[in-house]
Structure formats: C-alpha cells, structure tokens
Amino acid sequence: MAKTVPVGVSARHIHLTAEHVAILFGAGYELTEMKPLSQPGQYAANETVAVIGPKGTFQKVRILGPVRPATQLEISRTDAFSIGVKPPVRESGDIKGSAGVTIQGPAGEVTIEEGVIVAARHIHFHTSDAENWGIVDKQKLRVRVGGERGVIFENVVARVSPNFALDMHIDTDEANAAGVENGQQAEIID
C-alpha cells in the first residue's frame, strides 16, 4: 500500500513571541485569526509585519499564531538572497546561531540577532500515522512528487506528535522547482 501524504507549500512567514507582539503592535495586543492552518491550533493571523535585512525589505510578512517561545522567520533561499541574509537550513525551533533581521510593526520595531531559517523540508505525522507506517520521530525520508517536473526529495524530516496532522511542508523554492501545488499528494518511498 502506498504511503501518500498531502503537500503544503509554505511561503515566507514569521512566528512571534508575546513580548515581540506587544512591541510591534502595542501592549496587550492579541493576534487575530484569519484562517486555520493544517496543523491543529495553528493559524494564519490577520496581522503582518515588515522584515528588514541588510539588502532589502519584505512588506506584509504573514504572522502565524499562536505566539511562540522564540521569534522565528522562515524564508526560502531566494528570499534570503533578496534581503541579504544567510540563514541555515534547520528544523523549526532550531534557531541558535542563525541569521537576524529587524521586524517592524505599526507600534514599534525589534531587531533579532538570531531566528531566521530556511525550514528543513518535513512531514508532520500524527503518532498513529507514524506507528502504522513504521516511522519514528526525526527519521529522514525519501519522498516522490509526481507531475511534469516530478522529483524525489531527500532528507525529509519526520516530525511525530499526537498534536500533529499528516502534512508535508516544503518551501516555495522547492515547490516551484518541482511544479508542486498545495494539496498535491506525495509518496513516501523510504
């Protein structure tokens, strides 16, 4: 039986701490939900910020909620060139020693010394899905995406949690290179 998983294409976005939300939007401000995301409890917020690097600025970078313990900007390699930063490829949350940027909101700005990454391609597995398929947390997988520009993605990180829903995440560079669209099915081959 084929092990197929839906693909979600992840555009540039930012996760903020409660402290940074207060600086950027004002004391006591709370993010508001625009739409839910594939992972339970996660959402795209109505709010956006500007992100400023040494060579350029992105306006209207979408905030994803809820707030997190550390501020983290996830961008593609092409985005990194555009604003002049050199982020490492990392799993979400692994920001130590990564690149920094300045973030501007309507009420203020904050500069982070680290927190900019190119997210490692990964698949979120609910614990039951992972158990059914014999997959363990942090396992590196090979995943085939078909179509006119089909590819096999190497080193796709399995992320297993009872709080996750089955979904593969790749960034816009990867999706564009392979001609992948949101919701397209991919096959785990090993």
From TrEMBL:
InterPro entries: PTAC. GO terms for biological process: 1,2-propanediol catabolic process. It catalyses: propanoyl-CoA + phosphate = propanoyl phosphate + CoA. Pathway: Polyol metabolism; 1,2-propanediol degradation. It comes from the Bacteria. GO terms for molecular function: acyltransferase activity, transferring groups other than amino-acyl groups; metal ion binding. This is Phosphate propanoyltransferase. It comes from Paenibacillus cellulosilyticus.
